[in-house]
Amino acid sequence: MEAQLQQLKEEALQKIEASQNVKELNDVRVAYLGKKGPITDLLKGMGKLPAEERPKMGALVNVVREEVTEVLEARMTLLQEQAIQEQLEKESIDVTLPGRPVKTGNHHPLTRVVEEIEDLFISMGYEIAEGPEVEKDYYNFEALNLPKGHPARDMQDSFYISEDILLRTHTSPVQARTMEAKEGKPIKIICPGKVYRRDNDDATHSHQFTQIEGLVIGEDIRMSDLKGTLSVFAKKMFGEDREIRLRPSFFPFTEPSVEMDISCFKCGGSGCNVCKKTGWIEILGAGMVHPNVLEMAGYDSKKLSGFAFGMGPERIAMLKYGVEDIRHFYTNDVRFLSQFHRTEV
Amino acid sequence: MLVSTKWLAEYVNTQGLDPKELGEKITRSGIEVDAVIDRTQGMTNVVVGYVKECVKHPEADKLNICQVDVGEETTQIICGAPNVAEGQKVIVARPGAVLPGGMKIKKAKLRGEESNGMICSLQELGIEGRLVPKAYAEGIYVLPETATPGESALPLLGLDDTILELGLTPNRSDALSMLGVAYEVGAILSEDMKYPEATYNEGNEKASDYLSLRVDATSENPMYVAKVVRNVQVKESPLWLQHRLMAAGVRPHNNVVDITNYVLMEYGQPLHAFDYDRLETKEIVVRLANEGEKIVTLDDQERTLKSNHLVITNGKEPVAIAGVMGGANSEVHDGTTTVVIESAYFAGGSVRQTSKDHNLRSDASARFEKGVDPNRVILAAERAASLLAELAGGEVLAGSVVVDELDKTPVEVVVSPDFINNRLGMKISLEDMTSILTRLKFDHQAANGYLYIKAPTRRQDIKIPEDIVEEIARMYGYDEIPMTLPVEESKPGGLTSYQARRRQVRAYLESAGLYQAITYSLTSKEMSRKFALETAPVTELLMPMSEERSTLRQSLIPHLLDAVTYNTARQADTVALYEVGSVFLGETESGLPHEQEHLAAVIAGKWVDHSWQGEKKAVDFFVLKGIVEGLMELLGHSKELTFERAVVDGLHPGRTASIQLAGEEIGLIGQLHPSEQKARDLKETYVVELNLAKVLNKEVEALYYAPVSKFPSITRDIALVVDSEKVAGELQAIIQLSGGRLLKGVHLFDLYEGEKMEPGKKSVAFSLTYFDPERTLTDEEVVNAHNKVLKALAEQAGAELRG
After folding, report:
1. What is the structure's pLDDT at A68?
2. For residue A269, what pLDDT is reported?
3. Shortest CB distance from A134 goes to which of B422, B560, B593?
């Protein structure tokens, strides 16, 4: 019987060793250690043994069973680990395959420029003012010191709806309306919006375009305040090391009037194709609010003064992003629009 | 304004400055120099030649073989110009010369004959064709006999010069003259002026013996001066005068006309020359035209006049449109012997209106419109008379015929130095200010803490203290102004609630996959009303540039569809665009159209495209509807939002809905009509338009938190069999109304119409969630509530539970 036991043990260990997966091993467990297995049979058959041999034999069977169990468990752990390993290998993926796209759109480049400017001035205490795109001649011209017959009206040929109503040629009527509404109180606003002029559309002209203007009115507003404000704007918009220069100019609604150049952001001022070899780029027009404009809106030009500035987001976007044709802004070609996707803070 | 720097130097010392440097100084102190044009354009080897012999080329009809003395030698040149002739002094580009436009002159053989250079036209030297005197417009230019063969032709032609092109703003009409520019340069460089000579010997007879003058419209024409010059010889002007005119952008004609143009450029005072004999009446009467009166102008056009147009007449009929253009009937011609020179002050507004009505802009009208210097009217007449005496052999009759009611007193401006410094934020000393005024040649006195300034009449833009602020600032230098920021009460800036939410709408739509588009507001009349949310009169331009851009839009959809068509034609497989912009409806009390801010979106093509994992989906109605629902949820209106089937012209009749908030229509959504899709070569395309202003102005409840409950909710699914026409929204509404307070959610999760259903029926499945935040619901409570729902569905919609 002892010999039989040894043989069983050898057999079991061999089969454990030969098991290649969890299922085979479980079959071995059932075959040798199960209730109907040969080891259990041996234990059952112990009754036939003389009583004095029974404890010895019982102990021996138990030792063999424990030994086999131990080896089997060790083998089981190994096979289970192997199984997990195989599973993981089976589940592995090509991580270089494309992900499920999250499609998002983006701001139109003009909105991108306008919001950047708006946010800068909001941080300096400005509010955003808006007004109608179809305007009265009064707000578009007369209230801005451009009476009927004024030669400067030629500068901006207009789309008239009737003798007194037209598509606004600039966002300045928003300033006139705001001044009228504020009844002599201080003002600090930015006015963005669409404007219209009688131009044939080509690479540099568009009958519809956008403007963004600023207006500050208060006690003792000086030209130096305008220059300082514009310098903050230029640095924020075009880089910390931008310098500005003012050149005399003319607008009927400001006196003195200036144009502002910034040092070229591409070459830094040494001269390149962006600044046409001058080192400077014209960015905006500005000036001190003309006393006639203040008086027309009911402001006492002896007590209050102000400055105003205005620029074209198209021009800024063209300079900043190197866009060569203004018509791109209104064609809405997805291949154009989608290039303004990434953030740039 | 084109300013020859050589000519300019006759009136002011330009200190030998390089023209570029001079241009920069002018730009920085007030007048923008748009371009500095080198007239030599790099030309060399262009000399005077003498045509000793000129014979026809034996092999070519149109070519001539010329033997030309070019100083150091006589050489053969083949010339094709029709006007080349023996004995002429001509311009020769010698081999090695480079002409404007890059043409290189080489020795060549033309039909077997050697040609050592080229005899040139003025055009070949870079002069615009429109400026070349008519006699030489079609051929070579012939130089005066005094030219010496071999000498450089460039100085003779004034081409050794640099032009400053001024970009003048409307206020600086004083710089529309060489003298005006000289004053400006004099101020910049602290130099004095040299004035042109205007001396001549007067004849014995008086102008007034020849001519009488009456002005019937002195508000339009407050000053009129006429001088009479006899025995004039009309001929070609001397070369120096011709090339100065060409440098200034004026075509030379004959000496009389050239002199009037020369003085116009010099003084900024337009002049006109009449042929005295052709006036016939010995009388000039200035009056407003009779309505419908006609005149043939110098350009041979017959023009019909209106009663607000000022005309010069001979007492009977118009001989010129005042300040705009002369009449053909009194034009100076080769046989003219007696000339009347007109120098007048015509009111700007009158000239402007007349020139606009006739669409006729001239150098003269441009100056009158902006206002000429009242004190130069006589000076210019005198200068022209002296040149006529000098260059046309004329005899100037004594005196002038004059009507003068023009106010010529300078404007006085009183301003304190403190005011100037306060406006600028600077501390400029009084001495520096007065020194600038001296340089500007403004009459001024400092007394009692004020500056008393008499603005010269040439500077009509100087009227108020602020104008002096600008003069001081630009001459002192804008670079000197310090940089400060406004000192004021500190107030927060920011967006209005409307503006902030509009930004959120944009951000939402972009994160939903749409690109922001900006399209034109102007469209064709036909398209303007298409897809409009409401019926209103359209707003049309008085004078559109084209039919395509004649009317303001009432919907954003048409131009967005154009963008879809454009992109699809360029192989875009998905187009998803939105726009926020105004539409223009009818008219408000103020006369302006009612401007409404709308939001529109279009989608076409693929929506989900992740094909390697088998996910692919084209756009459909519910993609766009989902975007609208999400938007309304963002804005706090999802509970009031409903969609109702609608019919809209241009949209698919079965796939269109009106969008409503609390029963009020706010927009439309639908598929583009298949026939429109076909016309545009598009696949299924969906559009939506919302009255954004109405949505954003709608009140929203304040956001308030509801505690998150620890009790579970209970879900019951029901599958209903209803008539096919029953819409899901109606079933959902019945469920919501009948579910009681415990029903917290209804969610449609299945829809089936097909073989397994009885004809005319469909199955709609909803998942209903019951919930009480205070406790766990009992089965009985749920059953009670649920039974009420089922009962209502059966009664109100004939819905049966699907077995």
Report:
1. 87
2. 83
3. B593
Which of A82, A106, A99, A68 shows the shortest CA–CA distance to A23? A82
Is A248 close to B478, i.e. CB distance below 8 A? yes
Q: Between chains, do A222 and B581 touch, taking CB under 8 Å as contact?
A: no
Nearest to B515 among A152, A200, A334 (CB): A334
CATH number at residue B183: 3.30.56.10
**Distance (Å) from the C-alpha of residue A338 to the closest C-alpha of chain B?**
7
- ipTM for this model: 0.88
Phi/psi at A227 (nearest 5 deg)? -65, -45
Residues B97 and B237 in one domain: no
Beta-carbon separation of B493 and A123 below 8 A = yes
Q: Do A255 and B467 touch (CB under 8 A)?
A: yes
Does the distance separating the beta carbons of A258 and B348 come in below 8 Å? Answer: no
A312 Cα to chain B: minimum distance (Å): 15
Number of structural domains found in chain B: 6
Give me the residue from A125, A161, A249 closest to B491, CB to CB. Answer: A125
Q: What's B501's domain CATH number? A: 3.30.930.10
Question: Domain boundary at B663, B697, B731, which?
Answer: B697
pLDDT tens, A21-54? 889 889 888 888 888 888 777 777 777 778 888 8
pLDDT (tens digit per residue) in B509-551:
999 999 999 999 999 999 999 999 999 999 999 989 999 999 9
Q: DSSP strand E in A206-275: where?
A: 208-219, 244-251, 254-263
Residues of B in contact with A224 (CB under 8 A): 424-426, 481-484
Whether B786 maps to a domain, the answer reads yes
Please check whether residues B687 and B741 belong to one and the same domain: no
For residue A154, what pLDDT band results from cuts at 50, 70 and 90?
low
What distances in angstroms separate CA B246 from CA A149, B4, B237, B576, one per listed residue?
32, 10, 12, 57
CB A193 within 8 A of CB A169: no
The answer to whether B466 contacts A290, with C-beta atoms less than 8 Å apart, is yes
Residues B504 and B358 in one domain: no
B547 and B659 share one domain: yes
Within an 8 Å CB–CB cutoff, is residue A323 touching chain B?
A: no
Do residues B255 and B377 share a domain? Answer: yes
Question: Per the domain annotation, does B480 fall within a domain?
Answer: no
Residue B482 belongs to some domain of the structure: no
| pLDDT tens readout for residues B259-310 | 999 999 999 999 999 999 999 999 999 999 999 999 999 999 999 999 999 9
Where among B445, B475, B505 does a domain terminate?
B475
More confident residue, A160 or A1: A160
Is the domain of B452 the same as that of B509?
no
Residue A161 contacts residue A167 (beta carbons within 8 Å):
yes
Pick the range with the lowest mean pLDDT from A61-65, A149-153, B29-33, B207-211: A149-153
pLDDT band at A151 (very low <50, low <70, confident <90, very high): low
Nearest to A105 among B484, B494, B510 (CB): B510
- Are both B151 and B168 inside the same structural domain? no
Residue A100 at interface with chain B, using a CB cutoff of 8 Å: yes
Same domain? For B14 and B60 the reply is no
Whether residue B488 lies inside any domain: the answer is no
Total beta-carbon pairs less than 8 A apart between chain A and chain B: 247
CATH number at residue B774: 3.30.70.380
**Distance in angstroms (rounded) separating the CA atoms of residues A22 and B729:** 56
Rounded Cα distance between B217 and B310, Å, is 8
B contacts of A136 (beta carbons < 8 Å)? 590-592
CA–CA separation, B176 vs A248, rounded Å?
A: 17
Distance, in Å, from the CA atom of A22 to the CA atom of A5, rounded to the nearest integer, reads: 25
- Tell if the CB–CB gap between A194 and B521 is shorter than 8 Å: yes
Say how far apart CA B449 and CA B430 lie, in whole Å. 9
**Domain extent for B221:** 202-404
On the 0-12 / 13-18 / 19+ scale of CB atoms within 10 A, B712 is exposed
